Amino acid sequence: DTGVSQNPRHKITKxxxxxxxxxxxxxxxxxxxxxxxxxxxGPEFLTYFQNEAQLEKSRLLSxxxxxxxxxxxxxxxxxxxxxxxxxxxxxxxSSLRTGYNEQFFGPGTRLTVx
Amino acid sequence: xxxxxxxxQNLTAQEGEFITINCSYSVGxxxxxxxxxxxxxxxxxxxxxxxxxxxxxxxxxTINIQEKHSSLHITASHPRDSAVYxxxxxxxxNEKLTFGTxxxxxxxx
Lengths: 114, 109
Known about the structure:
Helix content of chain B: under 10%
Radius of gyration of chain A: 13 Å
Radius of gyration of chain B: 13 Å
Shape of chain B: globular
Largest interface: A-B, 28 and 22 residues
Structural class of chain A: mainly beta
Distance between the termini of chain A: 30 Å
Largest sheet of chain B: 6 strands, mixed
Structural class of chain B: mainly beta
Order of helices and strands of chain B: EEEEEEEEEEE
Largest sheet of chain A: 7 strands, mixed
Oligomer: heterodimer
Shape of chain A: globular
Order of helices and strands of chain A: EEEEEEEEEEE
C-alpha cells in the first residue's frame, strides 16, 4: 500500500453513461497525476495538478474528460458519454514537490464500457 | 517527445536465474523510474535514478546517461518476482512520465 487510494477499484458501465473516479493522494503531496493504461500497453499521461491548479493536459484528454482537484487534496476524473474505447485502467499518482519528486501510484480504477 | 523502448517484451526464466531487463530512450532525461505492476494493476515504484547504480535487496538498477540506456537486474529470481516491469522517464522541465510498454516476466519454479 503506497498511501494513494483510488475508488472505485472496478467500474462497469454502459456506453453513453457518465462515470466519476476519485483519487486520494498521500496527504502532504501537492502534485497529483492521472494516467490511463490500456491492455498490453504502458500508462499514458492524462493530466496533472499542483495543489488545485491543473497545470498540464494531454491531447488524450478529450472534451468528454474533466479532472478537478478543488481543495488541493483529493481529485476526481469524470468521463461523460463513455465510449467502448474508454475501457482502460485509470491510474493516479502523487508526489511532493522536491528535487526528488518520486511519484507514488494508487491501485488504479479499471473501467469497462459495454 | 521521448520514445521509450523496453526489451524483451516477454521473458520466462527458471527460478534462481539472473534476469536483465533493458530500457532505452531517445531524449535526455532528468530521471528514470523502474516500476513493477502485478496482475490487478497496482504499480509499485522500485527505483528512481538519474545516474549510476542503485541496489535494493535482489534488485539492481543502472543507468548510462550518455548512452540513454538503463537496465534492471534481478539476482536469484523467484516466482514472486513474476510481474510486468515498466520503465518510465521524466524529461527536463516536464513533470509527466513517459512509459515503456513493459516487460512481462514469468519465473517458473
